[in-house]
Fold this protein.
Amino acid sequence: MIKFKITDRYNITAFRSFMTNIVSLLAGLVVIGIIFLIVGVNPIYAISKIFTGSFGSVYGFKETITKAIPLILIGTGLALAFRAKFWNIGAEGQMLMGAILSTWVGLTFGDALPSYIIIPLIFLAGFIGGAFWGIIPAILKIKYSINEVISTLMLNYICAEILTMLIVGSWKGKTRFGYPGTDNLPDSAILGLIPGSRIHYVTLILAIICAIILCIAIYKTRFGYEARVVGDNPDAGKYAGINFLKTTLIIMAISGGLAGFAGVGEVAGIHHYLGYPASVSSGYGFTAIIVAWLAKLNPLFTIISGIFFAGILVGGDAIQISLGLPAATVEIVNGILLIFLIMGDYFLNHKITIQFSKN
Amino acid sequence: MEDIIISTLQRTMVAGTPLLLATTGEIICERSGILNLGVEGVMAIGAVVAFIVTITTGQPWLGVLVAIGAGMAISIVHAFASVTLQANQVVSGLALTMLGLGLSGMLGKPYVGRPLQIKMDDWNIPFLSDIPYLGKILFSQSPLFYIAIALAFGSWFFLERTRLGIQIRSTGENPKATETQGVNVSKLRYLSVIIGGGFSGLAGAHLSISYSNSWIEGMTAGRGWIAIALTIFALWNPGRAIWAAFLFGGIFVIQYLLQPLGISPNFLSMLPYIATLLILLLISFKDSKKLNAPAMLGEPYKRDER
């Protein structure tokens, strides 16, 4: 008879953690392949096309890096929030609020100011917008114990409607010929690109710097320690005199603010004007949840996992075009990979030994 | 004016039905201690599956049954992750929502914009539907409306009065003590998650083959998330869920009533989401002991080694 004996694993090495992720992703890809097979698509072709489309060509790789920028920024912020067990599902809304405020600053002051003043200003505005939208659920949770998953989600919907209200209403641009959307930002407020690509390098550098700073903050500072205690052992935190409201507010200001940065990048680097919410946020706020999880909530690793998932987004676009698959395909891929990643955690945290006994 | 009030109230019942179904399902699930954030995704699956089956076979009731089955089947993913693998229930539920929304978009793509010829007919309850005012509002509705109310009452009875229901509740309160009574906690939690999934699937079916008669991607529009909030607002009691769901049905409908007054349609679309935050704020002023939340909600249960 075969018996499975399950025991807890206490010393988890970085290598084992990495390998578990790889195996989980591969297992997820197998299931995705089966789904492709069911809908009548050659799975090997489709999956290889996802990766050749994103990492296999210069054009694809440039697009991958472009899409990695918001994912790294948001994923880094989510890694911090999730460590404190604050389930911020509202990065979409925080990103949009950042985009709204920075567009306003860009349109209002952009003409009069040179780039080296206006660009820091729009990033600051983006951070403030995102932080503001992130602080609301933090207050609601700590002061009124309102579940943050629901409040952040509701705030996503609310922010999307606010944005739409603006672009079909008072902010509608004269140059849009009646279509919703603001006018283009003035040239001074537009981010430079790496020639021949859509990579707005200022935001990319900002994303990497933020990831590094946050990594140091989490592992080396008192604030990072408090954030972890708030998440792992709130009771101990209360005895230790940690101010939950203050810590949570800071965490969510950063988490929302980084999403706001991502919103600035999309508006000032890619679109150059504020359009429909779906085109601004493009689901990055949700994809970044998986980015943070794959990075094991380590901000530094979100750089790698952000690039990986940006690749899946770009490759997903590629198979949509070449195989005629719907846009929702990427969501399926993301959902399944996330399920396998959390399932993998079980095998990381538990040791399973198979025992054979004579019976 | 009279007509407007009657039709508003009638549509309130229609809009509240999927909310009631999804909320009742989530209550059963959460009572067992498992938080399922996958409602939105499972509803989307139910909606698309019901639509596809109805449009291809011409049988709305077959569509309903298949939607319930599909909702149950996909919920097993969450049950497996959160019960067997003791995974983080927040993340697992989110993954289920992503998967459900994605699968529904993929399956439904060929059906976008195709109107349903055979809709589910409304039932006029004999005699009762002739009552002035009330008859039109309450007794000539979609069959799923009656089913939703019956299921809510039934679930209340099930959870409060039956042996199995009480075992499910005690599983959510104190799994360890429940297990010493010889109850299989894992089995009950699987059962509750799967039942909840069936309810969500049914709620989705109502959206696509009764509420409207077409399928569009994202037609669940956050209703699954609102149902999770209503679960809290209803204090995990299916009886209270009835009026909570129809209150929200009213908020969905009031948008159309206010639109001619020149209020921004985007502002009106915000109302259900703002109202969700408001009711959670309202409930937070209640004494937390009276909130009735399952004590072990969201906590994985680990059996001791024996």
